[in-house]
Amino acid sequence: MIPASFDYVRASSVDEAVEVLADAGEEAKVLSGGQSLLPLLRLRLAYPSVLVDVGRLPELRGVRDEGGHVHIGATTTHDEIIRSPVVRAGCPLVALATATVADPAVRHRGTFGGSMAHADPAGDLPAVAVALDMEFVLRSTTGERVVTATDFFTDYLETALEPGEILTAVRVPKLGEGWGYHYEKFHRTAQAWAIVGVAAAVRVTVSESGARHVAEARVGLTNMGPTPLRATAVESAAVDAELPPVPHATANGSPSTARLPSANGSGPHDTLREAASLADGDTSPTADLHATPDYRRHLARVLTHRALTHAAATV
Amino acid sequence: MTEELDAGIVARQIAESGELGEPARNRHEVGAARRRKEDARLVTGRTRWTDNIQLPGMLYVAFLRSPMAHARVTRVDASPALHRPGVVAAFTGRDLAGEQGSLPCAWPVTEDIVVPAHPPMAVDEVRYAGEAVACVVATDRYRAYDALESIEIDYEPLPAVVDMNAALEDDAPRVHEEGNRAYVWKFGTGDIDAAFRDAPVVVERTFVQQRLIPTAMEPRAVVAQTDGDSFTLHSSTQVPHILRIMLATVTGIPEHKLRVIAPDVGGGFGSKLQVTAEEVLLLLLARRLGKPVKWTESRSEGNLTVHHGRDQIQRLSLAAEADGRLRGLRVDLLADMGAYLMLITPGIPILGAFMFNGIYKMDAYDFTCTGVFTTKMPTDAYRGAGRPEATFAIERLMDELAAELGLDPIEVRRRNWITRDEFPYTTVANMTYDSGDYEAATRKALALFGYDKLRAEQSERRDRRDPVQLGIGVSTYTEMCGLAPSRVLGSLSYGAGGWEYAAVRMLPTGKVEAVTGVSPHGQGHETAWSQIVADALGVPFEDVAVVHGDTAIAHKGMDTYGSRSLAVGGVALVRACDKVREKARHVAAHMLEASAEDIEFSEGTFRVRGTEAGTTIQEIALAVFGAHDLPDGVEASLDSDATFDPDDFSFPHGTHLCAVEVDTETGATSIRSYVAVDDIGKVINPLIVEGQVHGGIAQGIAQALFEEAVYDSEGNLLTTTMADYLLPSAADLPDFVTARTETPATGNPLGVKGVGEAGTIASTPAVVNAVVDALRPYGVRDVPMPCTPERVWRAIQGGAS
């Protein structure tokens, strides 16, 4: 658990950072909060020759409301995001999922952009990114480009970031009125990675009679394949699903412990449950010490139903 | 802002916050909830941990460890490491073979036990992944570690042996030439065949005690140094005294030339009750190089090479009458020794042999334990050491028996336990339980838990097929503490005694130093021992310092493990205080011009019976220091020491009740409520007891739900990080409701029984019983530990089909 030796550069600007990266090529790694990278170095699973520290650059930090979207600077910490009124108002799903990341110590050091660039499919934020169609702003010495979330996550721990490029910000499109959100995370201990997680956003319509239906749904899956996945089949099937009346005292904000009793037999949830049962289609979950692929598939179905139900209940 | 963050302020706040522990004037210190006087330095880190020690010219050691579970080392060359930056020396097992000796096993449990040679650094063959095969000594830790990769080593793979049942087959690959069976140890009383013949009910189960990795907050660390003549070894150990004797024997360094120091030690849970390869090797390196050397393990290195705990397969048969009364119990254990026998490896399951009957009466008992070699890290003591395994077995069986008979698990226990008026009671395992009151503890626990109400809710949830089912688990445990009566240890072939030592030094200014032979590593001895001394000598709590853990200062002792510190070491301290008082009485008589028989002692003052004239023990200490006017024949010292060897073990007991909610759709288990009523006899400091109970329960829950060391079929340890070896934190645990009943132990003057392991022993079966109870409607009779969500979910699928 002692890293191999490496050079360390603390960049004083983004321009300097990308210049150092351009020179170092594939040998370089960007250090932000260090909460994913440092364990990799200590376990000698990564051997960068140089670390470029961007963690203290003010230009990369902070949250702004930019009208149609929320701008999140790459080195904004998880804790800052959880507490940000702009995030809570403009993209509450980000705050809900971020609150489940690891533990308070990690959330104070770990950064939003760092989690994305690390691209661990067991991380909580990438699934939110694909569910919300976030846009990733990448910069290098040759300029800036923007890629969508689905294009950003390319494989296990791999992204569209080229050598010499850093992630400077993420733009989170606002979904507008009538949406409810929930992140359902299933893990064995509070600090553990998700065995499976489901990020859900649901737009609800209420008819004159008071009946509630799903108008639109977004579902992102954590840890169901080498990249975060969008459960598009669920999203289509959930449209027009009838929702139950809103239960009082909904446990919005305590996602991983909140548990709505599931319906047995017939009831208004059925369409939603059928939609959720499609959640593991087109997934390729792996086996590890905590779960087999079969069990992950089962969990994806159960948790997707819960996530949709909870999300809808917050509207 | 910086001031607020200053650790010194935190330390002072902790030190000054006496409100919780301030005893009323003239009240006894013993029994007061004193805050721990050692916490300020431990919590702020302003203290000496082994890794904090920096010495001039110090060198740093890194070990190359075998990546294979079992292999012949066909070639090894450490010399390329010598060309790496900062490297001072590099050694292989062959370099050290002539002087490294063999790591000791102090508990050969049978005459014909196989005790294989255990070189601290492997020479020709490695037998577990992580075994040291070479080392580098360098000017800093990082260079030492970097240079490891330049060592050239070739392995010829040999078959791994990971499964105990397979290991015992005739054609199994051998871990050692002598075979894979280390020993077979048998014990029995009564007519076991008669007990099972025509028994109306027989419950047969096989339970697996998974392998656990003790996870002390402070990793192991060793510093060795020499002045060319004598040696000093600092180690993060629980057993400085045992270590000194054993290291002298292994290395040939004469005992009087070897000082061992356990500075502040951050937890052990049994894992630091060991003589480790690294301790031996660092002494050898200091001897060879003449320079101080340090090694501190990384967490992953620790997961690989700190001795592991548990790992038993328990085949159990319980015979009972139709009304649930027990007739007899058969226990057939396979205990995984790992690759070698370490300090007390073979004895751990034997410590459980006397506990499988629990608190219950029965006619016959039959116990067989087979120690099995595998190509895994050796096992040894881990919090409870043998007793958690035994308690789990009997408490799970009692719930299974209740289910078989359709009785409430409390009722089945009530029909079998030793009643309060039957003490002292000699059990079927030949232990004499001196005191206890199982009815009282259970009554209190049931009331605190709301047992009947929860049963009603359970039944209601079952009726409406709630996807979240409620389960209730019972554990009415006992254990044996106060290790140990030396005669008993002798009869079990243990290599040492179980006495304990204490000394009291009266300083001229009236302050007191209490020297103890036990070796605290987080338990709070400095506070509890101060309370004992304060009462025994009538001096203020603040005026007592407790000295420990250095063989040059606290020169004798048997150290800390097995819930023995208070029940054995605390009693030695009381005896030493008695002697101080007796010496002081003679001086007081002289000073007060009275005869010693007429001198009374109360709250620190000696008085002539019937008069107000008096002198305090602290005044006497000064007078003895001056020695200007001592009576004839009286030495100028009040200092005294004592050893105490208990006649028997002590037997804490209690009733733990656990309610879990199991989400049957996902298999997730959450603990809804947990009640622990413990009877540990008299209590010196209830706050410390509370801490021990909380930590113990957490650790027992961890075995039930979270922790498991996993080796693959090739013998590779897969759980080398905390991401894979899951430890629960406070966020994963419920609030514990704790309470006590108090039946004093009769075997010692303090009436104390020991509390260090009780919570761990009691809680694991309480939790698993609750999980299984929740799933009984699904036909589930067992869930292997740890009861992970997937295992629970699969049990539901399997049970239902």
UniProtKB/TrEMBL annotation, chain A:
Amino acid composition bias (Polar residues), ranges on this chain: 251-265
Xref: InterPro entries: CO_DH_flav_C (IPR005107), CO_DH_flav_C_dom_sf (IPR036683), Diverse_Substr_Oxidored (IPR051312), FAD-bd_PCMH (IPR016166), FAD-bd_PCMH-like_sf (IPR036318), FAD-bd_PCMH_sub1 (IPR016167), FAD-bd_PCMH_sub2 (IPR016169), Mopterin_DH_FAD-bd (IPR002346)
Coiled-coil annotated spans: none
Gene3D superfamilies according to UniProt: 3.30.465.10, CO dehydrogenase flavoprotein, C-terminal domain, Uridine Diphospho-n-acetylenolpyruvylglucosamine Reductase, domain 2
Pfam families, per database record: CO_deh_flav_C, FAD_binding_5
An example molecular function term from Gene Ontology annotations: FAD binding
Organism superkingdom: Bacteria
Keywords linked to the UniProt accession: FAD, Flavoprotein, Oxidoreductase
Domain called FAD-binding PCMH-type: residue spans: 1-177
DNA-binding keyword on record: no
PROSITE patterns in alphabetical order: FAD_PCMH
Record region (Disordered): 244-273
SUPFAM superfamilies attached to this UniProt entry: CO dehydrogenase flavoprotein C-terminal domain-like (SSF55447), FAD-binding/transporter-associated domain-like (SSF56176)
Protein name per the record: Xanthine dehydrogenase family protein subunit M
Native source species: Sphaerisporangium album
Source species taxonomy: Bacteria, Bacillati, Actinomycetota, Actinomycetes, Streptosporangiales
